[in-house]
Amino acid sequence: MTSPRRPLTPQEEARLAQVRENFRQRKAISEKLNRIGKRVGVYSGKGGVGKTTVAVNIAAILAQEGENVALFDCDIDCPNVTRVLRVTEGPAHENGVFYPSSRFGVKVMSMAFFQENEEEAIIWRGPMIHNAINQFLTHTEWGNIDYMIVDLPPGTSDAPLTVMQTLNLDGFIVVTTPQELAALDAKRSINMIRKMNLPVLGVVENLSGSIFGYGAGEELADEMGLPFLGRTEMRIEYRDAKRPVIFESDAVADEYQHIASGLRKRISEL
Ligand SMILES: Nc1ncnc2c1ncn2[C@@H]1O[C@H](COP(=O)(O)OP(=O)(O)OP(=O)(O)O)[C@@H](O)[C@H]1O
Ligand SMILES: [Mg+2]
Fold this sequence. Notes:
The chain is of the alpha/beta class. The protein has one domain (38-269): P-loop containing nucleotide triphosphate hydrolases (Rossmann fold, 3-Layer(aba) Sandwich), CATH 3.40.50. It has helices at residues 10-34, 51-64, 81-85, 126-139, 158-167, 180-195, 216-224, 250-269; strands at residues 36-43, 69-73, 92-94, 97-99, 101-103, 106-110, 145-151, 171-176, 200-208, 228-233. Helix 2 (51-64) crosses helix 8 (250-269) and helix 6 (180-195) runs parallel beside helix 7. The longest helix is centred in the N-terminal third of the chain and has 25 residues, at 10-34.
């Protein structure tokens, strides 16, 4: 026979309250995410291949083409999006809600807005990163968004894994440079995403040109059975750029229009 219901101990009450709070937060996040059309991560295992550059320029070109675009900087340790987008003004804040700043038609949220000092080191483990992303998701009012571009941290360990698991992304663009080693790392990245049963939307080759060569991105895409979304060359215009480079160079704008059109096509097919 089951014993009559006894009152809960304070510890059990606290645990129950925690479960309810987690449930409430997950529901609020999922309602928020439902108002965001497509969520696309920009990722590579290797650092410095141009993830942030590609994320910012894709976001800017989509906005220029008339889409409602959000750019979510999920490189919590080294948030660089605000630098590349040249946005200095943080989000407006009212009654516990953040209204993201907008620049070049792109709404942006980043840990960088909450650092007192840009050079400060943020050293967080997975659960804290998970918490920070959840806080951003819970408290940010994005409005209606067609595309959310998510800039991920490099690597295949704790930080990118946490972002992938927390954000429930629709798919990933994998960035590689033309060198063999970068392509090997990009292959690992693709395998990591696939292991998590998430779709890879395609490959972008960045820093192509006479110095690093051409072709590794296309070869990688072929080998992995993925669309090659396009390449973007290494160019002097990126140095000290005051705006995303699509606004500085017609050639770069053409490259990103091509990438964005491949991305739209791929998303519509999924
Ligand atoms: N096509 C390009 N031509 C010239 N410079 C570029 C190009 N793409 C990126 N860069 C430069 O290379 C550097 C690294 O780029 P970026 O920060 O976008 O890489 P990342 O992959 O996001 O790096 P991390 O792994 O640290 O997040 C930056 O200084 C950027 O301006
Ligand atoms: Mg980056």
